[in-house]
Amino acid sequence: MSSQATMHLPLFLILFPLLLAGLLALVGGNATARSALAKVGSGTVAIGALALYWTTLHREAQFFAWDAVWLDRAVLTAEIAVALTLLLISLRGRQPLIALLVLAQGALMALAEWGGHAHPHVAAPLFVDSLSVIMALIIGVVGGLIVWHAVGYMPHYHHHEAQTPDRQRGFFASIFLFLGAMFALVFANHLGWLFLAWEVTTLCSYLLIGYSRTPEATRNAFLALRLNLIGGVAFASAILYIARTGGSLALNEVVASGSATALIPAALICFAGLAKAAQMPFSSWLLGAMVAPSPVSALLHSSTMVKAGVYVFVRLAPILQDTLVGLLFALVGATTFFFASCIAISQNNAKRVLAYSTIANLGLIVTCASIGNVQAVWAAILLIIFHAVAKALLFLAVGSAEHSIGSRDIEDMEGLIARRPKTALAILIGIAGMFLAPFGMLVSKWAAIEALMKGHPILPVIVAFGSSATLFFWTKWMGKILSTVKGAPPPHGPVSMEEKNAMFFLGVLTVGLCAIWPFISSTSVKPFLLSQFGAFVEFNRATILIMSIMLALIAALPLSLLYKGDKGLRIATPYLGGANVSERHLFTPSIGLTKPVAIRSYYLTEIFGERRLTRAGFIACLALLAILTVVVST
Amino acid sequence: MSAWTRILAAILFVLLSPILAGLLAGLDRIISARMQSRIGPPLLQPIYDLLKLFQKERIAVNRSGHFFLLGYLLFTILAGIEFFIGGDLLIVIFALALASVFFVLGAFAAGSPYSHIGAERELIQIMASEPMLIMCAMGFYVATGSFQVTTIHAQPTPLIATLPGIFLGMIYILTIKLRKSPFDLSTSHHAHQEIVKGITTEFAGPYLAIIELAHGYETILLLGFLYLFFAPWPLLALAALIAVYFLEILADNTHARLYWQWVLRTSWAFTAIVGAGNLILLHYLQRGGTP
């Protein structure tokens, strides 16, 4: 099928993080060794992913025949080890439901393995195509930068959270295990291997969310485990179904067999994807996950975990295309997008706003992938790329801001632009990247609306309402950062070099991607779409031109700020409805006392209250899933 | 359209819009005055006002204000250019949204409580009107198969026949976009219902002039949207635009400002019923026609 030589890089990307995880578990107790290993590791996965990208440009998919009994046994052993670990965790935490879910998965997998039917055989368990390369780039580069940031961030974290025991050894080991599993997940063609990687990411997210071992962290870690294991049971059922019906466990053959035969297992795997991608009604685990240190949130939200959920949707898109099942999944995604975007309006905790925005954007990706036409899948892949970069930047910057202002409340970020200009700029770029033209997310949202118009018009209608809500909460946040009312309280605690590096690169990437996305699209997205759909939607030249003009304008506008020698401008104090006194933010109202100005944002809880809308979203999505179950089983 | 026609259209839009919008505002003020039993100002008064504002001393609360207002003006003009050269409607809408965001951020950055409230209220207005704008583009797409203004403009039959609901929805949100009562939450021309001066509180002189100018461009652009519904029959289109604008003035003078909850709820509900309803109905009608 192809030369084995090109397989070295993917294999290296899977095994190297695993090796580092082992090394960190051994010698990670020493702070110097730990940070050195983590830095080498993050640099290596980033460079490895870039090297893979360059060596596979314009290439078609390559499959790696690798048939060895010991390999199957090794994977089986690993599967059992993961299951036993999860079982142990559930017993120690007294979580009977989790134990039950693990046992159910084990039973399903055992039936698939030894159930008496012909043993499904996969000739090529690993493969590389342009979609896996894009995913590897996200995992390697964005994930690598997050690890780099974590090296500088974690000492600060422990400085601030003095009561939390320092378990950084296990922390960094889990992160590299996570990265290795993510690489395995995107290079796996054997569904059994993919499932193993899937479960390892679930396990790692449990370990990382529960890092601080506070009751809240432990509770939320178990919540994440529980919800993702429900998805895992669905995934295992898909494998059993395929084994029973005598189908192939090779991902490429499942996709090629089309919706006539593969719709049921595809629906089951996508159901697992919904849980992992934190779609309603599974969204609560991602909100709980923010108790973890910021790099973990960044990792879960941008380059790993949730992206694994939408990855399977994109893979299985050709099966979902033009089916009722696909339309129902698309509706779940659109509903989640709408409700999560609306709820974000009512949130003042920066990390919760980011979490709701992640849930919303993944909903949009799920919608696009489930509609499954060429243009929709194109939009889904670009959304994955842009979202990963901008969201990672936002989480890291919010984490750093939290350390310097001692709060993650958006209200406390008032005037951050004056107090911490660079961190503020990072947040502003991240936010602009999330919703403003001509930045990436908007490019793909625009493509998404066009693509969804070819499906049922109800989908873009829901998206139109949801996007308006995103405009509200993002702009409100930007405004808060730019609003300089008070004399700036001095920030405390320096931002480490590693944090600055990571934020700088992610900021440059967020802006740079707006300029180079047509290149990425034609080198990596196009080959994938051609192989899956035999077609590609070429982008309108005029549109790219106008987007470039907008980008240039946005880049040029801040230059006007440099113009300081403006003689004709008189600076006055803002109107405060009373007599201003010496300080800019103090005034004397009619009563005669001197009062400070306090400005608070609108949260519109009367309409966008979290509890009410969460309930509505859950009910809507549960109803859709119920219909889905009926459709699939008949 | 050839490249030259496009360039000509862009230049005409940039040069003529301020004059057209000024005349329109003048007419608006005269008609409003008559409705209030006053005589009203001369027709050219808004243009005199604008020129006068540009000559005033520049006073601002910070040095970054002009940056945001410049963004507001430039991206509004860019949205208009994209529209009048026959470009992509979604891009027009997104550029317009970007322009509004710049405006709002300028008000936030001023750091005054009054402009802050105005900015938040402006955001509510944007949120209330944005879905209908996008749905208008979607309606044109369902009817013509394209988001390109050129294609939409070249339809042989008026789109109002297939998109009456969308047209009604657009009239509804035009009230918000034109800052007319009862939807003038963020800033109002009626002094009696204003919290100081809302979003424009901290902008004076030339800065206020930039805002007025950008608003003028935006008005012409939005009327362009409505024109597309009647494109094959220009005279009917003109009559429709005049009628719609008169209705807006009438509403402006007969209603007091509503609570924001009302503005948001009614405009989203109206958008969902007439806008989305029209879209979905049309979708099924077309399905029925071509199996």
Question: If you had to describe this structure to a student in words, what would you say it looks like?
Answer:
- The complex is a heterodimer of chains A (634) and B (291).
- Chain A is mainly alpha-helical and 634 residues long.
- Chain A has a domain of 244 residues.
- Chain A has 24 helices and six strands.
- The mean pLDDT of chain A is 87.
- Chain B is 73% helix and 1% strand.
- Chain B has one domain.
- Chain B starts with a helix and ends with a helix.
- The model of chain B has no long low-confidence stretch (mean pLDDT 91).
- Chain B is built from ten helices and one strand.
- Chain B is an all-alpha fold and 291 residues long.
- Chains A and B meet through α18, α19, α21 and β3 of A and β1, α3, α4, α5 and α10 of B.
What is the CA-based Rg of chain B, rounded?
19 Å
Q: Report on the biggest sheet of chain B.
A: none
H-E order of chain A: HHEHHEHHHHHHHHHHHHHHHHHHEEEEHH
Number of strands of chain B: 1
Report the average pLDDT across residues of chain B.
Answer: 91
* Global outline of chain B: globular
The helix/strand class of chain B is: mainly alpha
H/E topology pattern of chain B: HHEHHHHHHHH
Structural class of chain A: mainly alpha
**Residue share in β-strands of chain A:** under 5%
Total of helices of chain A:
24
Name the overall outline of chain A. Answer: globular
Query: Mean pLDDT score of chain A, rounded?
Result: 87
Tally of DSSP β-strands of chain A: 6
Main sheet overview of chain A:
3 strands, antiparallel
